[in-house]
């Protein structure tokens, strides 16, 4: 256990490091691990937004600034070891449905994002989002954490090449002897062995080891000079900052778009926060989550900020689990991630030197660590077992935390009614279940 004398007084006062049984060193290491695990968003999100017509350089800048500011707020205000960035899935919905299918200008789509942020904020002030979290039964809360772990591991398996698409079986074993896949497997084993030996920073060491090995083997590029790793001109948000079109979103008829943005982001973020805070030991014995009001308020403000800067909806990132697995327990982890986002403005090409197959094994490790609550899930009573099982299964199979949440809520409500236990279904569970059904209908 760290003592207050071993940590700088100002950091101790802000982040309560000793109370959380952590240290500055551990938090910094956790922040670095989280950042490396989610750094791919710096490249993936701008590419997706560029397909919507948003200038790519501005998309890079808006992604970085939005992620950095909201993550810092989450760390300092809520004291959460959780990073925020534009959400995967919602950026695709933004580009390929709202802009691509509905043919709305990206400025109007950003206006819809802003409206959803305002809606989030009002829901938070009214205690609605907090009430939804409290209404989630204990069994489903455990299932959410396990489902997220399985989802993370699934992403890691795909990133390593251990599993690949197959027309006949949908998925099958990849080509294990492929150099990058073989290197990923070696990295996975190395990280596992380091963790077995109790080595601090095992996940981060594994990522760096795979990256270095891939360079030595010619599987990823090697920087030859300072110019190779430093950007001479910083990306700017001038083309997107304040470009969101509220009037256009309103005139189009915002209900269906904003409803979908709101429902998906609401439950994706709630599910992520439940899973991450459980893993970080922030859930009290009565089921309440520490500082959840502050965390949800920041999330709502972050969504509005996304529209202002010019990117799709921001949300909590499940990759934060990698930093939590390294011991991150306070907002200092998030502040570290925030600082690294700003540094990435200059060293963006350096981040690109870390290949996907180097970070993917860490996601598998995190998935393993999040399986612990599986033993605490009630599978004896079928009215509890079916919702929990579908919550866990649908997250990786549909690549959506919100979909897992939806199947869990709806089946829980139905099973309890059929079992003659309708009193166990509170009014919020009914409302949320109906909202999910409406959302599914709107999405066709």
Characterization of the model:
The chain has 444 residues and is mostly helical. It has one domain. It contains 20 helices and 4 strands. The strands form 2 sheets. It has a two-stranded antiparallel sheet with strand order 1-4. Strands 2-3 form a two-stranded antiparallel sheet. Helix 13 packs across helix 19 and helix 13 (255-279) crosses helix 20 (427-442). The model is unreliable at 1-5 (pLDDT under 50).
How would you concisely characterize the structure shown here?
Helix content is 66%, strand content 3%.
Write the layout of secondary structure elements.
Elements: H1 9-15, H2 24-38, H3 41-50, H4 56-77, E1 84-86, H5 90-99, H6 106-125, H7 128-135, H8 138-160, E2 163-166, E3 170-173, H9 179-196, H10 202-216, H11 226-229, H12 246-252, H13 255-279, H14 292-309, E4 314-316, H15 320-325, H16 331-351, H17 356-369, H18 382-398, H19 401-418, H20 427-442
Antiparallel strand pairs: 1-4, 2-3
